[in-house]
Amino acid sequence: MISFIARRLVIMIPLLALLSIVSFTIIQLPPGDYLTTYIQQLEAGGQVVDEAEITRLRAQYGLDQSVYVQYLKWMGGIFRGDFGRSFHWQAPVMDVIMDRLPVTLILSFSSLVVVYVVAVPIAILSAVYQYSVFDYFATLFGFIGLAAPDFLLALVISWLFYLLTGAMVTSLFSLPFRDAPWSLAKFVDMISNVWLPIIIIGMAGTAGLMRTLRATLLDELGRAYVTTARAKGLSESRLLLKYPVRIALNPIFSTIGWLLPALINGGVLVGIVLNLQIIGPALMQATLSQDMYLAGSIILILSVLTVVGTLISDILLAWLDPRIRYGEAN
Amino acid sequence: MVGNKTLLEVKGLKTYFPLDEGLVRAVDGADFEIQQGRTLGVVGESGCGKSVTAQSILRIVPPPGDILEGELLFHRYSKEGDAFSMADVIDLAKLDPRGREIRTIRGNEIAMVFQEPMTSLSPVHTMGNQITEAILLHQETSKAEAREKALDILHRVGMPKPSQTIDSYPFELSGGMRQRGMIAMALSCHPSLLIADEPTTALDVTTEAQILDLMRQLQEDLGMAIMFITHDLGVIAEMAETAVVMYLGKVVERADVDTLYYDARHPYTQALLRSIPRITEDRRKWLEAIRGMVPDPYNLPSGCPFHPRCRSAQGECREVEPPWVEVEPDHWARCILYADSTTATAQG
């Protein structure tokens, strides 16, 4: 097992180098750079842009250097913990990300917890009492959750919320806390606002997980080993949890690692609709305005998390399922 | 230990499955007894209701199947010195299939060995885990003691290197070893009745012979009764003292094994026996097969369900339900040919 993990870690090094090149290339793909976009904005506003000023800015941002030099400089900085500067925010990329990270993590993590806590029991009941009234309701909810796009859900729910309470959902924080530093009061304020985005972001995930787990579990419930356990004298609930549920959950728990990038980049559209200060919308804006170091850094972080998440998933799967663990040893 | 004491009486058992396509009478009149410490063979083609009969006894018939009629009288004896005294009789058919009472019987007093030792064992739990589970469930022992008992029973079933195999997963073991583990699991609580549902069908002939030997040996040692379900008449001859033949949910004949082989009365049993290849026969001769096909379970023939395939069918067979007749002492057949016998009963 240890050699397996070590081998995987070694493979990760060239993979990550490759990923950084790909990330940087993607950022460079659209024609022009941040300054072209910036000049366009200024000209659209009727301002005259001084040619000398542009050259000065281009030199200041290092945009006059070749792509390779830009890449190497950027990578060199990353090893020192410096991801470059965001043109748009006029601040280090790291600051822009760290600013949004706590809220992003709280939001993503709590919606993830909600997804599992809600979906797993419903799926189990739904499969055990297949074709019952409960199952039909769960199925209906599952299809709605899967079919409705999250931004639409966000619009509809915040409209309903407005109709019912007269209040608008505009941010995670009430006005007095919006620019205040973190404090207990601000945290409490966030808790009172955070449930709505959590429901919206979690909806599709809950529906999807519910449908998948119900299907796998239905498959497992008919297996002979369930009958064996029943013939042994185990009570229904104990045998359900020990055998079919355990086996049906294996693939689901082992894919938890894959959710790692989603934790950072989840809820982009919901974030835009509800005006949430999270990373997803910032990435979108950065790509639109060709804010290359911010966009590149977020994409790079997402790629790293994807690779790490896959490794975590593989380790989890081997740990949970002896068939895979032993297959690896042979 | 072996006495002529009844352990289980199955009387008029009917287990039906109401499906969308129609009502399937999986077991439609099964009558037999199992004696303490003896082996009863149950033979029949696929789909004749052998397995559902076994599932009915343990009350693990998969939904929507359910027992409609009949009694499953399980006799419990308490051991006092050398003598067995009858303690109580319990009708398994009346128990709640999810209730506590049937669960204390399952795996403890009546245990079952299944056909496919690969799929019947959990792939993600060790053999030891699955065996000790039954012990911990039915006996008040510590985990360490349960493991000792599991090792002991694994040793008894001839599992090679029990101290290693106890921590193995089923997929690491061969088919024969898995079935030994399965038998160990079933016998871990010393049941008085072991139901073996085609325990050797998935094994090759050499392993089959070993497992059959093992089961006979264990029966001698532990004294449990065995209900041995198979489609293989040869295996029945080897294993059982008495046997019942089932066709489309009905027990059509019941006798001791010798009588059944040399003096079968029901036309179905006779046809089955004729379809066994014999080593002494002329090899150029065609092997006899029972003509026709097993009927569609949703549209069973009226009267005697065997009449469309029966050599001796008469006009009446189409309409009249054949009676359950004791053609000779302890030899019963469900056929109109013997309806004139003096001991005919009107049982369905």
Features:
heterodimer; A: 330 residues; mainly alpha; MetI-like fold; 77% helix; B: 348 residues; alpha/beta; 2 domains; eight-stranded mixed sheet; four-stranded antiparallel sheet; 12 strands
Give the helices and strands of chain A as they follow along the chain.
Answer: HHHHEEHHHHHHHHHHH
How many separate helices of chain B?
Answer: 10
By DSSP (H or I, 4+ residues per run), the number of helices of chain A equals 15
Large-scale geometry of chain B: globular
| Overall mean confidence score, pLDDT of chain B | 88
Mean pLDDT of chain A: 85
Radius of gyration of chain B: 21 Å
Give the second-level CATH assignment, the architecture of the largest domain in chain B: 3-Layer(aba) Sandwich
Kindly name the structural category of chain B: alpha/beta
Strand order of the largest sheet of chain A: 1-2
Fraction of residues in helix of chain A: over 70%
